[in-house]
Amino acid sequence: MEVFGYVLFLFTMFVFWTNVQGAVSYTNCTKLTSCSCLTDTGLVVDLSPLTDSSGKAKFSDVKAKSGDDFSWNPCKDFTEKAGTATCTNVAACQIQLSTPPLLFGLGNQNSASFNINGKKNLQVSYSSKSDPKFTRTAIVELVCDESQEGTLTAEGESPPTSGKYYMTLTSKYACAKSQEPSNSSNGLTVGSILLIIVLVLVIVYVVVGVSINKYGRHATGKEVVPNYTFWTALPGLIKDGVLFAFSGCKNGSGTTYDNI
After folding, report:
1. 153 phi, psi to nearest 5 deg
2. Partners of 144 in the beta sheet?
3. Domains located in the chain, CATH noted
4. What does pTM read for this prediction?
């Protein structure tokens, strides 16, 4: 039973590591489509569930701190009109609230590119060079939040006259996730299956271990807990290991071990 306890602990740590991989940072995301990319950790960021396919923007006329409004639609271009002005077949649109209003396209889906910004967040950018001397670029920072369906805020142009217009999407679809087959969206993920296996093994381990100790070895009290000594010593061993690693692998006297 003691060997089984060691194996169970190591397997539990493996499952924990497997399930937190989506939270691990990545340094690159290669474009797959105009609204999805593949990270260098093998996970995918896919904004397609946020797409409006009606020809309109999913996020429309979002007020920016700079005073302008911005519209954006992942995956598919849209068209927006205001008076006689129009943004035609664009991924993002700037609306200057003048009289009459002025609309400027900020690039279409074909211009989409992905990169990591200075805050270590993924961002998708679109560019338009309608004026030969001036390029307009929409930059949407993607913030992972599993509790949010999708919320867009706009900061506007920064710095002024730069032609760079910033927005921020906070959404669960901005999170990097493992690729799932399209016909298994309602099935269990690999992480869920591993967690179920761990739960079953823990139950079997406890029930069998208690039964052996109580009825086979006639143990009483805390001694009926399988591998009681190992589990009570484990927190201290982990603590000692962490302190040893962070102390530069020095022993208790403060000196390093001799080289082999």
Report:
1. -120, 155
2. 171
3. 2-19+183-246 (no CATH), 27-175 (2.70.130.10)
4. 0.62
